[in-house]
Amino acid sequence: MDQTISVISLVISTxxxxxxxxxxxxxxxxxxxxxxxxxxxxxxxxIVMSMNDSSLRTCWGGxxxxxxxxxxxxxxFSNLIFSWYYSSYLTKDANxxxxxxxxxxxxxxxxxxxxxxxxxxxxxxxxNAAEAxxxxxxxxxxxxCYECAAAxxx
Length: 154
Hints:
Elements: H1 2-52, H2 69-90, H3 96-108, H4 110-129, H5 133-151
Helix pairs in contact: 1-2, 2-3, 2-4, 3-5, 4-5
């Protein structure tokens, strides 16, 4: 009888530990998503401020692509759109197929292609520094969609 109780106790304890491990893993993932979203919200705010005040654009460092005020604002807005696609993909709100659909549409427009030509290297540096496979996959999909759009193929 004591052995049966010990076995049942062991099974219950093991199940409890597994549930705790799953819960901690889920909480960790949620915390990472929350931190990423907080950073993206801050980034959006900075971009919007820069879009509304051209004197702030040079604060980002480097040089803004040449072009009119309107073209610069369009490129900055494209960054917001592209960053949204990135966030959706990382949080798994968008799968590969949906990401490809969005990026194919984005790169059909000249502004989207101009944005990628101007910012691809920065995205490449970001994803190369990242250890997450999904972040690197995002860049591969974006490059593939851009190449298809630039070549005029669907």
